[in-house]
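User: Hi! I'm a student and our assignment asks us to look at how structure tokens line up with a sequence. Could you show me two examples?

Assistant: Happy to help. In each example below, the sequence comes first and the structure tokens follow. Example one:
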Amino acid sequence: MQPPAIFLMGPTASGKTYLAVELAQQLNGEIISVDSALVFKGMDIGTAKPTVEERGGIPHHLIDILDPSETFSTGQFRSLALAAMADITGRGKLPILVGGTMLYFNALSKGLAKLPEADPEIRARLDQELADFGKEVLHQRLAMLDPKAAARIHPNDPQRVQRALEVYELSGQALSDFFADTGSTLPYRASKLIVAPSDRAILHIKIAGRFRQMLEQGFLEEVQALYQRGDLDETLPAIRAVGYRQAWAYLQGGMDLPTMTEKAIAATRQLAKRQFTWLRKETDALHFETGDSELLNKVMASISKMI
């Protein structure tokens, strides 16, 4: 029988982090972060990265492993996550994967297709086209060539838009076609749990409150430190992260503080909306309510029947 693992999924600000630590303490587990922003060092406040105290003595993997100047692919995540899972299982503990980057969960569960290698010349030309014409034009081109990929990739994610265009140029195939049948399965028996509020308005209130709390905790000072390094810009995945992208524009003089705050909150709500779209596809997951006073007990009761 395959070894067990827990996938704890949910939209941003739904309470996943605290629940994951409680589960790890109860089940002799270790946590693997499934978050495309928590991998970056020096990005703590704006990513709601759990502090040492909040981690409750539980080892957390795939946090603070990269400098913000670096990139991190879905394939890299899958390789590192599988390695961490094997290590945790090998020590007799339970891997608990928690986060809101649903693309990572999907890649882990279903595998990744073998894509064409990157082409420096095509990359350079697409970079120039991005600078000359803007991200909307590239996204519109992708929508004509690969509607499925365009629907999945947000226009504010030019790196993935460019990669999809590059794949099409190199192969003549849509990126979506490569992922139709990866032929790869997860070598674990994953128990999927989703924690989220049933009322979307409650989540919106939590998102707004959390961002304003981040500002009070020094979020702008955190972004200022990154800005002053001089080697980072808004094209990097780290700086494109929700909240950081808006704060970066504010520091460049592109908007005032109230506008930045509202745009960051709106962008986080949009992120949550996209996460809910992914989560609806997880038809074999168990659902739990954010803020339920009996949340841990209900989750433990369900897990005991699954692992």
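Example two works the same way, sequence first and then tokens:
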Amino acid sequence: MASIHQIPRSKFWQMTYRDAAGRQHKKSSKIEHTPDGKDSKERAALASENRRAAKLYANELEHAERGNPTEAQLRKLMADLSERLCQVRITSPACREYLENWLAERQLTPTSRARYAKPIAAFLESLGSRDNTPIDNVTPTDLNAYFRSRLKDGLTPATIAVDRKTLAAAFASAHRAGLILSNPVLAAEPIRGASEERQPFTAAELQKLLHASSGSDWQASIALAAFAGMRLGDAVNMRWDEVDLFSGRITFRPRKTRSHKRDLILPIAPRLREILTEQHGRTASTGLVTPSLAGKSAAGKSGLSMSFSRLMDRVEIDAGKLEADGEQARSFSRKSFHSLRHYFVATLAAAGVAPDVRMALAGHTTAAAHGKYSHLGIETLAQAVASL
């Protein structure tokens, strides 16, 4: 049976207990055997209570050692001991409660919130009846099962990587708060597999798009993406106070990295200056470069992405559409509005612009992200081979 005793030069009860193999263990209880009190009666009462608590602690430890307890039992043991010794019970929020509260507390744009909400909802669904298990009961095995199910449903590794990043951020917050001992997402197996890549427009295709949209807000947005590398949301919501035609530069804060609080300053290319100068005469009074497109959603059948897709159809540009393969997978188009941003980076690469300069112009912070955009055309490759 476990026992407690005092040892020289220590104010805490020392515990002695045995494990299932009969090995003896000694451990400090961190419970004072001679606590302070306002008078002798209070000191005696506290000492008696501490002796009882230390004895209980020792017995519980011996019981756990001999009983080959599960992780859940150990957590319950620590919660019970904390409640008895400190009058504070260690609690861990339910997984669903924690993840939904974490999302609600984030300062996100509506688009980002929707993007974060999808993987959280899907992960909770994958847990089934365990969605209300304590957050510290979630294991890498749970994450592995979730990621594999997403891959089976037809989602690409790139999409699953976004899911992984979202869940990793949520569990990292729980780790920092001391609710979990480690981040289970980081211990989950990586998802490997090939992903389709967006392709840049050719110079001829770009000219078709600019000609077909001449005199419209779409032409200005297309030019901002092709000659300044802007994403759709940034291009259609550009304000004239961000464009300085006199000095030839654009200063704006990309929506995707707005939380970094860092402006991107871009020189205005000659062709872009021509188009923006014409556009200024039409829309300057509104304060917006493309007022008919500003504020509109990219998603949906009447969204900006589909509107641009219809423009591509009119000028007979093949989007390279791949049909969805899987229950939750979406169709993928190798060419879309974002291909204009790919055109911007790929054209700079083909012109021999140094990678660090290309990254600065595109607003990329990592070489890995930038590498997905640096497409080299067959002409550039042919020139490289010709130098052999």
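Here is something you could point out in your write-up. The chain has a mean pLDDT of 83.
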